[in-house]
């Protein structure tokens, strides 16, 4: 197994899972070289600038990095490994605001992204569909809704809130003014470990098509606070931070996982309370805080 990550200088090193190579996927030559060297049977294209919030401040970088990297990967597969099966990871952000009467959101819902990130992933989705139709590549497209869980970086909402709580514990604070955005919005969260399993099963079992990866359950962000409070002795006081509010936000999102479940047998297994608790413990470990 070979993994690819981004680093200023291209190179390679070993990991417990196999070889890790450092490649800039926006560089066509580097991308072609790694595909040519490896000759993969499966390709999981997960690389992206994935922060919706950051995409508002850097839309040009988000669009360039996400679209060009996908183009380079698909073109390299077309030339160097045309029989490989490819998973192109998209996002539930591609759908944008969907009326409550058309939720849970199914894969046939028209794409109407409401963020630069969502626009970039919609473009990648269309590009992957083009490579499947025009060049016959064996491509599975997924549209993952919100992920959460241990190991996630702090720009994402559950990780950001969990990190603040872990830092307050480490500092010995009895109370925490928790910086947050709009906690009344509702999102469809799936544990990152369930998402990884969904991606694997999608390439292993699913025909080339488009599949939502989601829990099928929408929760208000206030529920994240509730679960964090259950796991911590710090008194949590949410404080809305205007800097964390987006110019345009989708109020409520629930996805349908029925197609992926019916076709591949996947269903989420990890409860939301476990996801939040494990995310908090992960930040305790990373920041050096005691449980």
Please describe the structure with a list of short key phrases separated by commas or semicolons.
single chain; 291 residues; alpha/beta; Rossmann fold; UDP-galactose 4-epimerase, domain 1; 3-stranded mixed sheet; 42% helix
Averaged pLDDT: 92
CATH class of the largest domain: Alpha Beta
- CATH-derived architecture of the largest domain: 3-Layer(aba) Sandwich
Helix content: 40-55%
- Outline, from the CA principal axes? globular
How many whole angstroms does the radius of gyration measure?
19 Å
CATH superfamily of the largest domain: NAD(P)-binding Rossmann-like Domain
Instruction: Give me the secondary-structure category.
Output: alpha/beta
CATH topology of the largest domain: Rossmann fold
Q: Treating each run of at least 4 consecutive H or I residues as one helix, how many helices?
A: 9
Count of beta strands: 13
């Amino acid at each position: 197994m070979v993994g690819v990550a981004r680093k200023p200088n291209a190179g390679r090193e070993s990991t417990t899972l196999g070889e890790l190579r450092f490649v800039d996927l926006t560089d066509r030559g580097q991308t072609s070289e790694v595909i040519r060297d490896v000759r993969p049977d499966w390709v999981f294209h997960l690389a992206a600038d994935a922060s919706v919030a950051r995409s508002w401040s850097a839309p040009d970088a988000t669009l360039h990095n996400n679209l060009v990297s996908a183009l380079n990967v698909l073109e390299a597969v077309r030339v160097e490994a045309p029989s490989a099966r490819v998973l192109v990871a998209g996002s539930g952000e591609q759908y944008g605001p969907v009326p409550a009467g058309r939720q849970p959101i199914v894969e046939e819902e028209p794409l109407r992204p409401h963020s630069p990130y969502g626009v970039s992933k919609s473009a990648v989705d269309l590009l992957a569909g083009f490579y499947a139709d025009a060049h016959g590549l064996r491509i599975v497209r997924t549209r993952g809704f919100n992920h959460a869980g241990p190991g996630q970086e702090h720009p994402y909402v559950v990780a950001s809130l969990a990190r603040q709580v872990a830092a307050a514990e480490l500092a010995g604070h009895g109370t925490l003014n928790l910086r947050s955005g709009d906690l009344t919005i509702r999102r469809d969260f799936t544990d990152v470990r369930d998402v990884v399993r969904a991606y694997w099963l999608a390439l292993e079992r699913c025909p080339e098509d488009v599949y939502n990866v989601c829990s099928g359950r929408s929760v208000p962000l206030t529920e994240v606070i509730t679960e964090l409070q259950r796991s911590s002795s710090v008194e949590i006081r949410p404080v809305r931070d205007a800097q964390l509010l987006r110019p345009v936000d989708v109020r409520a999102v629930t996805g349908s996982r029925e197609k992926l479940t019916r076709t591949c047998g996947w269903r989420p297994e990890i409860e939301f309370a476990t996801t939040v608790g494990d995310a908090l413990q992960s930040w305790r470990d990373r920041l050096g805080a005691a449980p």
